[in-house]
Amino acid sequence: MTIKDIKAGLRNERLAVRDLLSAERRIEFSLAIADHGGDAITFDPGTVISGFLPIRSEADIRPLMARLRARGARLCLPIVQDRATIIFRELLPGAELIDTGFGTRGPGPEAAVLDPEILLVPLSAFDSRGDRIGYGAGHYDRAIARLVQKGREPRLIGIAFDCQEVAEVPTEPHDVRLQAILTESGLRQF
User: Fold this and answer.
1) Which of 56, 127, 156, 190 could form a disulfide with 169 if both were Cys (CB 3.0 to 4.6 A apart)?
2) Which positions are annotated as binding substrate (predicted)?
3) Alpha carbon distance 49, 151 (integer Å)
4) Is residue 102 over pLDDT 80?
């Protein structure tokens, strides 16, 4: 069995468990994530932070993003271009959101493209060392690599529910470790 096979198995298992959470429980956990992360994530006013809008059974971090904006963050959302490349477009209050593929919505092409300093990263599974399994397409790995090539060192904070934790995530050379994970139980630094 290859590392890709093991990751696929863990991904499917943890997403199935996440899918079993009721909508009410996901809302409760998402609000707890906002409570825990709203003040615990440290940054200076004007810092560019990439969030995301929830798809499927993901945590809804819109309340968290609102808290971060209120503290002076400049927000952006990931937009998948060319089915392989993520760019980050600025999310301004009241801006119209458009369909951006993969069941997501985000700012349109008129929005400024930004390089985030902090990325709130969706994932399917994580472990206690900060290793993560994404959704399998490598979008975030490539986006992070591009930011690093530009001389940036983005802080990576995984966003998940506790039920998505696994004993160990097998890693490959292209995998990037998180600096922290934020769940309904709180913010854990690695």
Assistant:
1) 127
2) 53, 58
3) 17
4) no
Cross-strand bridge partners of residue 78:
88
- Is 90 labeled as ligand-binding? no
- Binding site annotation covers 20? no
Cβ neighbours around 17 below 10 Å, total: 14
CA distance 60 to 97: 16
pTM, two decimals, is: 0.96
140 annotated ligand binder = yes
| 11 annotated as ligand-binding | yes
For 11-15, 20-24, 54-58, 135-139, which range has the lowest pLDDT when averaged over its residues? 135-139
Beta carbons of 158 and 178 less than 8 angstroms apart: yes
Which token pair is 1? Answer: 């069995």
Q: How far is CA 7 from CA 14, 22, 63, 142, 183, in A?
A: 10, 25, 30, 18, 21
Tokens 């609000």 correspond to: 31
Is 164 a residue whose pLDDT tops 90?
yes
Enumerate the domain spans of the chain: 3-189
Which of the four pLDDT bands, split at 50, 70 and 90, describes residue 138? confident
Q: Is 159 annotated as contributing to ligand binding? A: no
Looking at the domain 3-189, which fold is it?
Rossmann fold (3.40.50)
Which residue's entry shows tokens 């990037």?
176
Q: Is 168 marked as a binding-site residue?
A: no
